[in-house]
TrEMBL record:
<feature type="transmembrane region" description="Helical">
    <location>
        <begin position="141"/>
        <end position="162"/>
    </location>
</feature>
<protein>
    <recommendedName>
        <fullName>Organic cation transporter</fullName>
    </recommendedName>
</protein>
<dbReference type="InterPro" id="IPR036259">
    <property type="entry name" value="MFS_trans_sf"/>
</dbReference>
<feature type="transmembrane region" description="Helical">
    <location>
        <begin position="113"/>
        <end position="134"/>
    </location>
</feature>
<keyword id="KW-0812">Transmembrane</keyword>
<keyword id="KW-1133">Transmembrane helix</keyword>
<keyword id="KW-0472">Membrane</keyword>
<dbReference type="Pfam" id="PF00083">
    <property type="entry name" value="Sugar_tr"/>
</dbReference>
<feature type="transmembrane region" description="Helical">
    <location>
        <begin position="168"/>
        <end position="187"/>
    </location>
</feature>
<dbReference type="InterPro" id="IPR005828">
    <property type="entry name" value="MFS_sugar_transport-like"/>
</dbReference>
<dbReference type="GO" id="GO:0016020">
    <property type="term" value="C:membrane"/>
</dbReference>
<feature type="transmembrane region" description="Helical">
    <location>
        <begin position="199"/>
        <end position="222"/>
    </location>
</feature>
<feature type="transmembrane region" description="Helical">
    <location>
        <begin position="228"/>
        <end position="247"/>
    </location>
</feature>
<feature type="transmembrane region" description="Helical">
    <location>
        <begin position="84"/>
        <end position="101"/>
    </location>
</feature>
<dbReference type="GO" id="GO:0022857">
    <property type="term" value="F:transmembrane transporter activity"/>
</dbReference>
Amino acid sequence: MTFALFFFFYPFIPESVRWQISKGRYKEAQATVKRVAKINKVKLTDDFFYQHNFYRTRETTNPERNHDPNLIDLFRTPVLRKRMIVLISVWMTNNLIFYGLHLSTGSFGVNIYLSFLISAVVEIVAMIICILVIERVGRRYSLIACLAISGIASCIAIFIPVGAAKTGVAMVGKFGIAGSWAIGLIYPFEILPIVTRSVGIGICSSASRVVAIATPLMLLLYDVWPPGPLVLQTIAALVTAALCLILPETRGKKLPETLEDGEMFGM
């Protein structure tokens, strides 16, 4: 039923102006801007579109726009390649720990219904705090902090016996990974060039789904080596947190549009 609402709202959702410009659809971009300005009751100046190069042609733009960038372009250059690998790692780690803790909630020795209630509240609080923090501290250090919190909490939980204390520490880990998910979702939108953004996010999403499918299998380690799942979560979180140092800070920065912009972004 929820998905059906998509078809209702689709006609009212404008296309991204940046994407239209990156594809050379300048007339469509102009129409979109006029529509948004009308809705917001903003009067555009006569030379607005000339000032923002809405009438330039494909021949005067970067040659890379003469073809549609694809998956290979994201891994062709060293900077984008490193950042894509880190983003994929972040999404995979987020799913590994999020679902690992989520599915393990009932095995920590506390009433399963109470545990799930606390878990849900923790996720909401983490999301709200991250919204406030990332605009002050920035994306990169906020993401690193969230992953570190989750990894340290998972490590501590290894040495705590089943009970309320173990559940409490696990909820701290859930807080960290929920925050990491909130930040990790917006990071690719700000790091990847517009022309390859949808492809890059698709890769990250696909990789994370594979991990989500495999996570229940990881939990079988509880029967063989009880600390196993938490050890894997600790390693994944701390290693990924270190890898995030490669990512640039995007707060307050002009977002990259072309592949060249993406390669030079944050340098």
